[in-house]
Amino acid sequence: MSIEVSDAKRGAYQAREKNHRSVYARLGARVARIRVRTLGLVGGLAVLVVGLMMALTFLRPDARDDAAPAAAPSAPPVANANGQPIPGPTPASPPVAQAQASSRFGLNAQKLLDEVRSHGITFSDGDAAKLVQIGDANVARNQPDLTADDPQIRQQLKQEFPSLTDDQAKIETSCLAEYVEREIARQHHTVPPDESDDHGG
Question: Across the chain, what does the average pLDDT equal?
Answer without folding.
Answer: 76
